[in-house]
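A further point concerns the way the authors explain their paired sequence and structure data. The central task, working out the structure tokens from the amino acid sequence alone, is never made concrete. I therefore recommend that a typical entry be quoted early in the introduction. An entry of this sort, consisting of the sequence and the corresponding backbone structure tokens, reads as follows:
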Amino acid sequence: MKFNNPPALILIDIQKGLEEVDYYGGGRNNPEAEQQAASLLAIWRRKKYPIYHIKHLGKPPSPLTPGTVGNEIKDIVKPLSDEPIVEKDTNSAFMGTPLHQMLQDSGVTDLVLVGLTTPHCVSSTARMAGNLGYKTYVVADATAAFDTLGPDGARYEADLVHRVCLASLHREFATVIESDILIPNVLNSTKKE
């Protein structure tokens, strides 16, 4: 793995409202996803690599509705004052937001995606990033999914949903990777001056 430029860490919808598991499906996989994202965030800060926090603006009765505690970014990845927060009201972090222009203005070509949830905003953002030409990585152990009901009422467990979504992204829109493979490559990369 070789980065063309310092990769940008895109932290997607790591918000307090996503603690309301019952609202989102009743079960969730990968309870350590936020901690993995926080570990990557600490590395990005140390390396002074680009960081973008994505925040979803839900509509009532969503737990992510603006003006509610649920809309706040979780403390574990709380943005620093110089880290941009990009607000969105669709699944993709690129739709109706300045993210693509911000990345282009900064010369970013490689993206590392973490956050919630794998089948929704992570997947939508990864697909669009791939289509826009970014070299995109989705960190499997820093993302998570909820149980999902199919149109026939069948319940699909969160871990299955997570794994199938990652499989559909891999080698088509992004490279799916685990933190322990990503971290040494980030630590050994050097920032172009």
